[in-house]
Amino acid sequence: MFLGNSESPPLVFLHGFLGSEKSWHDINVALQEQYFCILPDLIGHGKNTNLEINSPLNFDVLTDWLLQLLDKIPAPKIHLIGYSLGGRVALHFAVHHPERIHSLILESASPGIMDETERAKRLVEDSARAESILRDGMSAFVENWYRMPLFASLNSHPEKLSTIKESAKQNDPRWMAKVIRDLSPGAQTPLWDSLSKLSFPVLLISGAKDEKYLQVIHKMSERIPSAQKNIVPEAGHNVHAEQPEKYISLLKNFLA
After folding, report:
1. Is the whole model's pTM more than 0.70, yes or no?
2. CA gap 148, 53 in Å, rounded
């Protein structure tokens, strides 16, 4: 959960759906000499399944959980890095607790779905996915999940894709069903109107092959006064897994 010297500047890494602290391994090994890397499993993922399964789960709950974690360490002010679902959590935290943020780095993350009809449609889709996890099990779900066009570029990295899928299959299916339903973009309050209030440095990262999130970060950069955006060639949705060396270089340059 921790790498590096606790006296060094703290970096908090939030993984994506189906991930865990292990998702950041290559990145953290390269940064631990200069930074204190804090690697929590998001609620419901990996080893973080101690809550009652019927407990409420939303972005306010995750924000309170992260705040308690940082107070316990303690890490009063952090550089916060989030990928996909973890990016949505990071943005929600940063909007509600800007006093705790040195800088914010969002990879392949969105502030949410503005259109109410589209939001309702996505919630129906994710509720159906939750049912499929409970019906068919984690292995079948993970195999289908990574067949989505969003992850097509990972096929160019078969060993990494295999590692990602095997790790994802270790998650508790009950919790993954709850997470995909309760934390669906269809259940999330959009944060687009809050972007203009972000006064700390923000780095937006997308893979050049990820057409959906390319459009999202272009729109986000227009609303965030302090935003930098970086498009990583030869990468899709999971930039840090597909191009770790370029990703590490981006982080180091931005944090410097």
Report:
1. yes
2. 28
